[in-house]
Amino acid sequence: MTAIEQKQPAERVRKIIHVDMDAFYASVEQRDDPDLRGRPVAVGGGEARGVVAAASYEARTFGVHSAMASVTARRKCPELIFVKPRFDVYKAISRQIREIFAEYTDLVEPLSLDEAYLDVSENLKGMELASEIAEQIRGKIRIATGLTASAGVSYNKFLAKMASDQRKPDGLFVISPKNGPAFVEELPVSKFHGVGPATAQKMRRLGIETGADLKEKPLALLQQHFGKSGPYFYGIARGIDTRQVRPHRVRKSVGAEDTFSSDIHQLGEALDKVAPLIGKVWGSCRSGGFCARTVTVKIKYADFRQVTRSRSLPAPIASAEEMAAICQTILAQEFPVEKGVRLLGVTLSSLAADGATGTGQFRLDL
Known about the structure:
Blueprint: H1 3-7, E1 16-21, H2 24-32, E2 41-44, E3 52-55, H3 57-60, H4 70-76, E4 81-83, H5 87-102, E5 108-112, E6 115-119, H6 130-145, E7 149-154, H7 157-164, E8 172-174, H8 180-186, H9 197-205, H10 211-216, H11 219-226, H12 229-236, E9 249-251, E10 253-264, H13 267-287, E11 290-291, E12 294-301, E13 306-312, H14 320-332, E14 341-349, E15 352-353, E16 362-364
Parallel strand pairs: 2-4, 7-8
Antiparallel strand pairs: 1-6, 1-7, 2-3, 5-6, 9-16, 10-14, 11-15, 12-13, 12-14
Helix pairs in contact: 5-6, 11-12, 13-14
């Protein structure tokens, strides 16, 4: 038995709920504007270099999704309606939702404005079934906000997160301790929370397509290829996740990166590749209710040499467009390149609560 398996507490099964609002930003806009209901809606910039921050379910049927370039989204769905985001409204609704969570437990770990983990093992209502708590919460959210939420219930955070995706939208799914390992074995690793496209591709090269494939790999091999993430992957392949629900977390930065199937050599290509990363990072920053002063661009070349370039402003970055302009300035100084570029990443740091004027690290509900 490995140390990971020994860490899993056998005497006490935790009860974890993951609540995820359904197409939150877009659903708020459809709720507040009847003309948008039943129509494909994208929240975000509709300009040439804009990025989709959120898409309604009607838009998703056309393949439109968050972090997609606006021009691509319009090409996929010519009837797509772009709406400017109203973060003050989203934050106010998020506060309503968190007040509902607080009726049941003090152990709430918000991930963004529209999703959170709740540990209801010892809940304030004295209720035995986490599934009943999840149903009550979903019902209260609908009454208070007019919006729907999906929920996943399980004995750890990883499986609760996976469960909440199973019955979207407006659904509830439970993964019991008895069924957890089998559920993971059947799941494609590309659908694992925490496994991005680059990691999934790397796993495929190792012959890992499903949770069952991942379970067959020894810990040493996973550590060799995935470093610090190796033990985590080894655990979740067995339905084990010992992470606690943490009500407060200090967030230092928000970032995203992408590894390309073929190397890029031109500045224009780099700007096209970095645009969805900017949209994803900026959306996470705004949805979490905080701002940033520093932009960092990571460049990994074909020979695996890696450089990072940063720019800091005296005041918080005002918009995704300003962030994109900073990234463009940084990249323009690196191109043309002698060797191709295989990876680009973008990170926001020097974080502060939205509206704060101080600097340094802040305690954030993320």
